[in-house]
Design a protein that fits this description.
single chain, about 150 residues, mainly alpha, Arc Repressor Mutant, subunit A, two-stranded antiparallel ribbon, 6 helices, about 75% helix
Length: about 150
């Protein structure tokens, strides 16, 4: 890889990391009281998947340790936003699903997040956002295979 290519790669990832930090901060600032970004992420995933997941599956999805996911799930369960039950086929495992209260909390979060994200998309321009999405998806897929 040439020096120019390396500089391009470093610049790209620097921008991505700063955008990530700013986006997380913006979204976290408008989440409903008591909800953290990690909570929203898990609730949103469960809402979209429409099926139960094991804590290990969730940890893998979010590239977290099982301990970190267990901590998040404990907080979500305490809030009443997820149901955690034993796996009927394997007593050593648990299964997690979003509760009706969790679905409502997730929906409220989406309502609070959507306008601020839409403002950013409007400011950048929908055409530019549409153009960059395939590149970001391809990078995400490539990075998910690096591990």
């Amino acid at each position: 890889m040439s020096d120019q290519s390396q500089n391009l790669a470093v610049t790209l990832f620097s921008e991505i990391l700063v955008v990530d930090q700013l986006a997380r901060s913006l979204v976290a600032s408008v989440l409903p009281k008591g909800m953290e970004l990690s909570h929203f992420s898990v609730l949103n995933h469960l809402a979209h998947s429409g099926s139960e997941k094991s804590p290990a599956q969730l940890a893998q999805t979010f590239h977290l340790t099982r301990g970190a996911m267990t901590n998040t799930l404990s907080k979500l369960e305490w809030a009443g936003w997820v149901h955690v039950r034993p796996d009927w086929d394997d007593a050593r495992r648990k299964m997690v699903s979003i509760s009706p209260a969790g679905q409502k909390a997730r929906d409220a979060a989406v309502i609070s997040i959507a306008p601020v994200i839409a403002d950013v998309v409007d400011a950048v321009g929908e055409d530019k956002v549409r153009a960059v999405l395939p590149v970001l998806r391809e990078m995400r897929l490539k990075l998910s295979k690096v591990e």
